[in-house]
């Protein structure tokens, strides 16, 4: 079990200059979990053969323009899409912070689920991270604050009555 504030991780600037990414966890060639600070509109990087799940964790949301369609990324709502998809991000209401799960669907299955309110989330050996959007949570005797990430496998998590949390799970393909 490891608790961290992803905003304290070293920022890596994007090639297009539209923001920075902070890598939280991963298994190279299989999956990556990161936090992106999006400060300018522009094209997304392509991740051929990969799947993406983008979840806005701060800000009003963003629009992903692609192939004549607009995908709306809203606060706390996981949005899955192909890493092959050419996307241009638009920020109608200003900068956002996104939690991004990128994974190779031939090797692993990835998911991001939303949990709200007081409950205990059972120990799940596939769960790799909990991102607390708001409220309070704890794991064993460790308190988790909004904006922090708990990296854990198979550990029960207790959410407070005001909690809104994202659980990231990864399982290997068999």
UniProtKB/TrEMBL annotation:
This is HutD family protein. It comes from the Bacteria. It comes from Ruegeria alba. Pfam families: HutD. The lineage of its organism: Bacteria, Pseudomonadati, Pseudomonadota, Alphaproteobacteria, Rhodobacterales. Coiled coil: none annotated.
């Amino acid at each position: 079990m490891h608790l961290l504030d992803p905003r304290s991780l070293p920022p890596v600037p994007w090639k297009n200059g539209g923001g920075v990414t902070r890598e939280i966890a991963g298994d190279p060639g299989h999956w990556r979990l990161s936090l992106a600070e999006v400060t300018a509109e522009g094209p997304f990087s392509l991740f051929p053969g990969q799947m993406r799940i983008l979840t806005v964790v701060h800000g009003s949301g963003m629009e992903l323009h692609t192939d004549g369609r607009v995908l709306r990324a809203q606060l706390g709502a996981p949005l899955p899409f192909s890493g092959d998809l050419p996307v241009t991000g638009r920020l109608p209401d200003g900068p956002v912070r996104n939690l991004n799960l990128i994974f190779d669907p031939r090797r692993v299955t990835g998911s991001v689920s939303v949990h709200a309110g007081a409950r205990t989330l059972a120990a799940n050996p596939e769960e790799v991270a909990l991102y607390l959007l708001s409220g309070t949570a704890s794991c064993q005797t460790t308190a988790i604050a909004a904006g922090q990430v708990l990296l854990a496998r198979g550990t029960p998590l207790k959410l407070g009555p005001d909690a809104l949390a994202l659980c990231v799970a990864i399982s290997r393909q068999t």
